[in-house]
Amino acid sequence: MKRSLMSALLLAFVLLPLSALGQPPARSTKASATQKQFQALIDRYYAAWNTGDPEKAAPLYAKDPDLVFYDITPLKYTGWAAYEKGVRAVLGSFASANFTPHDDLRVTRHGTIAWTTVTWHLSGKKKTGEAVEMDGRHTVIWELRGGHWLIVHEHFSAPLS
Predict the structure, then answer these.
(1) pTM for the complete prediction?
(2) What are residue 143's DSSP bridge partners?
(3) pLDDT digits over 109-126, tens only?
């Protein structure tokens, strides 16, 4: 009896891990869904900003007056109102500007907070006629509010050339 019980336990310890080999862990499915969700948000973000109209991007942002957003220029904006006004002025100096995210989006989520990182390329032309080609990086902290992911902090920057 002891021998058959021992054989059954040994068999279970060998077969149980093998049965799990063909099945993806539940976390990777959740991570994949999260990745797709934020890929859609990033696509929406870049499409909105590529219009040159901050109002198109506004629905993606929380409007708390003390939130901090870092951009290429100037160094810092506090609150959406300042960000919208400042970015409108910067984008207004361009005749055309197209930001393209690269395919290196990383997403980390913990409950109602998530952060994303991605690199991007800008291809544009200033109203002065100067061509602009630039690569940069983009980090966003998102918060789930009222069933929508909103940007509560952003760091948009380019390395020194």
Answers:
(1) 0.80
(2) 113, 150
(3) 999 999 999 999 999 999
